[in-house]
Design goal:
Elements lengths: L10 H11 L3 E8 L3 E6 L3 E9 H7 L3 H4 L11 E9 L4 E9 L4 E2 L14 H15 L10 H9 L12 E4 L9 E2 L11 E4 L2 H9 L4 H10 L1 H4 L2 H15 L10 H16 L3
Antiparallel strand pairs: 1-2, 2-3, 3-5, 4-5, 6-8, 7-9
């Protein structure tokens, strides 16, 4: 059963979290998303309350933020504590994580990026350092499986070899909404784990296609990942997702996705 926290009254769940973690929430700082709601607390931390159906919990678990404590050299909020429980009546699992509060704001809180953000050289350096450090971390967590790549690409493009030949640890949800500025930090670590090399770079690149100069900058910064075979497959999958989406979902991305998809296919199929 789908549950959208932008519409659902989660007052009782939020109160339960406050009692369990012994925090008071600043309701003026509330950030609501489809599957989560977050607040700044009286002790200057951040609490994110998340829900997911039991079927997803069985596949993925819900301890990604907690397990991110093992990551070194990656700009992320420090984790403090959590509470989790099962809502059997609605067949879902709730979890709240208390983390370090990051004063810098998301580059965009939601929606689509249409103008280039003002990002410093230090910001880009921290992005590169964090992605490089993250890629080398060892974990049993899985963010993206081969089947997702196969299904995503072949839904639009048939006859290609979609076998991923390089895997690395990734954030898994690497979009402008989860990156802060002017100080660089990566938010929302629920889904991190092993993915095809270049997954995060491809996600951010595709998320930036409406600002071509910004997409080009990402490609320059992460070209080694993006031009690898696995990175090309990640880019193609992101394009395929848009090209197979229902009309009205992300129409502005359709034309650039078509153009780049052909470029990527040419690279994948050209003789070595």
């Amino acid at each position: 059963m789908s549950l959208d926290l932008r519409k659902y009254d989660a007052s009782s769940e939020i109160e339960r979290v406050g009692r369990a973690l012994e925090v008071r929430f600043d309701r003026q700082t509330e950030v609501r998303k489809r599957r989560s709601v977050g607040f700044r607390t009286h002790r200057d931390t951040w609490v994110r309350v998340e829900q997911q159906p039991m079927s997803r919990f069985v596949r993925r678990g819900n301890d990604g933020v907690e397990r991110s404590v093992i990551l070194r050299g990656v700009a992320r909020p420090e984790w403090h504590q959590a509470v989790s429980w099962v809502d059997r009546a609605n067949d879902r699992v709730w979890r709240a994580d208390e983390t370090e509060f990051i004063p810098a704001k998301s580059v965009i809180p939601w929606g689509v990026l249409r103008e280039a953000p003002d990002l410093s050289a230090v910001w880009w350096q921290r992005l590169d350092e964090s992605l490089d450090a993250l890629s080398t971390q060892e974990t049993t967590r899985v963010a993206v499986r081969q089947q997702r790549i196969d299904d995503g690409i072949t839904a639009m493009f048939r006859g290609l070899d979609t076998t991923v030949d390089e895997w690395a640890t990734a954030h898994g949800d690497f979009y402008w909404q989860n990156l802060t500025a002017p100080e660089f930090c990566i938010l929302d670590w629920e889904d991190w784990g092993v993915a095809p090399r270049g997954w995060d770079a491809a996600s951010l690149w595709h998320n930036s296609l409406l600002v071509p100069a910004l997409a080009d900058r990402i490609y320059r910064e992460r070209g080694a990942d993006l031009d690898s075979r696995s990175g090309l497959l990640c880019q193609l999958m992101r394009c395929a997702e848009i090209l197979t989406a229902p009309a009205g979902y992300a129409d502005d991305f359709v034309e650039p996705s078509k153009i780049h998809a052909q470029r990527i296919i040419d690279q994948l199929t050209s003789p070595s």
